[in-house]
Amino acid sequence: MANSSKTVEALLTEHDVARISGLSVATVRRWRLLVQGPRYLKIGAAVRYRPEDLFAWLDSRPVGGEGQGGTR
Question: With b meaning 16 or more CB within 10 Å and e meaning fewer, what string describes 38-57?
Answer without folding.
Answer: bebeeeeeebbbbeebbeeb
